[in-house]
């Protein structure tokens, strides 16, 4: 094998490809092409061979065509002019007698990323949609979606959409599913593919022919359909019943979601469904495919949130096995926590106790916190186990136990005495910040029940200079002041020393300020200190509340089988936050209802037109209102956000152009960043004839992203707001068009 | 919808990268390597979110397969797709290893092209794929013209999993009942949890479009049939002990008519050509545990540990278990081990912190014992040894769930062969899944 991409190698390949003898021999020709691909995969620059390769694709050999298409797709973006050469051959291939070649040619053509390819694509795609081989139709249907993505924002061709809708009745199941996918992408702006009654019923009848991917996706599309009557609803549910027991877990989950969402007004049906999918879910939870098992466990947790005890009789299924990966063990522990009841609590606790001594620190601590959670209901047993664990004198175990105690004492005051008895002698083993904080808090808040509390805290005070964590020092200050209130004689001296250190020697400002705060508080007299510090030491109502909130199934049904349960609610909210979303109107119910009514495609199209040319009669902006920057800021801060949307934007900003353009429609600029600054911001104001103010912020994070627009309104007028927003959108759209 | 698919070796080098969507940038490949493959701590979750992009990964030996997407997809489907991808690759070139992937990269790109289009899963049945894929894996031969022309009839046919016009000179079928038995036992010999997950795998080499009917000793069916002649079956059941089994749940290949299963609980289907998984099931009741492990650990002072483990085989004496391996974990501070065993070979493997005891064969109703003395280095670490469970591997020639195949009938009305002409083979293999005894 020659060296990577040397000139020599390239020349040799070219010679081989253009040698007529090689071209005459099918196998040798194919081998030469394969060598080019190998070079490409190794990172060599083989772009020089483009003309020869295109020529090679003209050969009759299907294998060779496939190889060349791989090459062309990788190289086309780098050489758009030469790619045109390939287009010609590919177009010819679209009329090839073999369906495999036709399909391949269509796919390769749609995969070329070069400007202006659309005009060559249109004709072959349309004939592809009517091809007699389903293989070609499959490729063509998705090709339509690819083409529209290449085009970007241009108008959607209505004829094409109708053609795709009619292909939903195709014989081939994969064509049907591909049609749904393609329509969904093409009509994204209008809310995706419309599932009306005939389409829904048609899809339901075809379900059995689809493969697992198709079934899973069609079930997701059907979520959009709202049955007209109760009778129809139950017919659908009966028809789909078998899919709750499908062999593919993804189909089972998709079906479950559909059932839960459709039956949102029938809680007993929902419950029945969850009972029926218990088996399939449990078998997914114990399956050998770890990743699926993880996904299933996440969903089991979701279900348990609404139906605690749903899996209680199967608790043994959630015992961890030694060789399972860490993430499964953690999930299983969480599940175990939630399905504890009077009958199994003994066994579950025994099991969790076993995990507390696990080699993995994280797992061991997780198990301890799990026991701490169960302790809210079964306090005595759990406190016993936790106390026992302290005897092991392991750093990470003791730390976790003390933390669990702190949280527990707050929620279940009845266990305070038991906890206080266990506390002495913990201080030697705890090394980490979290553990120390918990211990110090406990000693401060319940110091009157721990005989040696002042002496333990004295040790901490003595070593405060070498203490690494500021949080521990702050906790120490609070605890010592609290303890001083209940046991003044023993604490006075060391409190003085600690305050002296914190104020005079401490470098961390937060600690110093806290020290000064307590110092001044103490100066104002003991009564005052007591008033400030002696708040209730527990809040049992919190614990009960947490246990009792069973969220109804409907709160999470729409999240089921998405990534939300997999990431967990909080993480998911974090991940999706600030994502440039579709414009969402917080105070405009009228737009919602209008969207709901649109069923047919024609009215969908009309609505788009309406938005672009707003009916100006409903909103008249006054030409000369001038807010000062201060007034603007004050009003801006006092108002709630009325509407947030993001506009497509590319290229740089020309502030002057924007300002002029906005001025034409009587929107005034209050302040604006200079051109090229990132992030770029602008503040705008406008007022209509009734005196309602519209304040707007434009924000462009980085070049070539989307422009974030936030609008605030002084009076809640949904119609006016909508017109204002569409006017703003039109202006910005025009400016963006000028820029590029 | 999948935005891209990457395959890495254990070092994090990209072997295959195929991007389907523009929203997945080049840096996604590196993001996964840096954040997951090269991460310090162990894998936290099979789904990772990096900069609003979700990475779903699956590991096969030391190869990482990652599917990437920016959308809110359903996780079960993506994982199932990755498994399917692994199956398909295995069917084409055997084990998924770095070398095989490098050798077959053109084939893999071709497969990725056919199975996924624009990020949407398309046809993924290995049998049906054969007609589209031109590259030969290690096994396949050159494609004939005839096969190419079959594409049209294949893809327009109503049955997606079988092509028409298949012919064999000898009509044969092989049925494998493959079970994996999982056990978690307490030191006192109490079963904490046990279940069998089984698969019925069928290899069919049958001509035409045969209609098959499969029967097994499912409790519900037997009881239903027994209703007519209740006395007789009652007697026979008493006579030969356990005859039928209770299946907790079972799932089937797409080809099985579910409606018929629901109404009559009969399993009838037109099988795909070649190998496929007919059914998957799970049982938890009345499991025959092929082995019992009885551990005895005694700590003699601080520096010595005495371990004695007895294994008992619990099945018919005429049957032979194979590939038996018992893994007895040892503490981290082990300095030396002396082992005495009556049968097989035992070795202390310091790198794995375990004594591995291997026995080639063992008949039923036998017993074997190993005893070991473990010397420990004195440490000042007060940490108690966690005592991981003793795990076991084996293979037995019966189904631990008790499942029996009662019949498999083949009907092909159009061609002239009948049920009697088909040569049928049935084989039962029970393997250990996670088979652990705590000590």
Automatic annotation (TrEMBL), chain A:
Residue stretches making up the Beta-adaptin appendage C-terminal subdomain domain: 621-733
GO molecular function terms listed in the Swiss-Prot or TrEMBL record: clathrin binding
SUPFAM superfamilies referenced in this protein's UniProt entry, alphabetically: ARM repeat
Location(s) in or outside the cell: Golgi apparatus, trans-Golgi network membrane
GO cellular component annotations of the record: clathrin adaptor complex; Golgi apparatus
One Pfam match: B2-adapt-app_C
Any one of the GO BP annotations: vesicle-mediated transport
Keyword line: Golgi apparatus, Membrane, Protein transport, Transport
Main location: Golgi
Membrane topology: Peripheral membrane protein
Annotated InterPro entries: AP_beta, AP_complex_bsu_1_2_4, ARM-like, ARM-type_fold, B-adaptin_app_sub_C, Clathrin/coatomer_adapt-like_N, TBP_dom_sf
Subunit comment: Adaptor protein complex 4 (AP-4) is a heterotetramer composed of two large adaptins (epsilon-type subunit AP4E1 and beta-type subunit AP4B1), a medium adaptin (mu-type subunit AP4M1) and a small adaptin (sigma-type AP4S1). Interacts with TEPSIN; this interaction requires the presence of a functional AP-4 complex. Interacts with GRIA2; probably indirect it mediates the somatodendritic localization of GRIA2 in neurons.
Assigned protein family: Belongs to the adaptor complexes large subunit family.
PANTHER family named among the record's database cross-references: ADAPTOR COMPLEX SUBUNIT BETA FAMILY MEMBER
Function: Component of the adaptor protein complex 4 (AP-4). Adaptor protein complexes are vesicle coat components involved both in vesicle formation and cargo selection. They control the vesicular transport of proteins in different trafficking pathways. AP-4 forms a non clathrin-associated coat on vesicles departing the trans-Golgi network (TGN) and may be involved in the targeting of proteins from the trans-Golgi network (TGN) to the endosomal-lysosomal system.
Record protein name field: AP complex subunit beta
Species this chain originates from: Accipiter nisus (Eurasian sparrowhawk)
Automatic annotation (TrEMBL), chain B:
Binding site for a 1,2-diacyl-sn-glycero-3-phospho-(1D-myo-inositol-3,4,5-trisphosphate): 345, 347, 349, 358, 360
Location of the MHD domain: 170-438
PROSITE patterns (alphabetical): CLAT_ADAPTOR_M_1, CLAT_ADAPTOR_M_2, MHD
Keywords: Cell membrane, Coated pit, Endocytosis, Lipid-binding, Membrane, Protein transport, Transport
GO biological process: endocytosis; intracellular protein transport
Major localization class: membrane
Protein name as catalogued: Adaptor related protein complex 2 subunit mu 1
Species assigned in the record: Accipiter nisus
Taxonomic lineage of the native organism: Eukaryota, Metazoa, Chordata, Craniata, Vertebrata
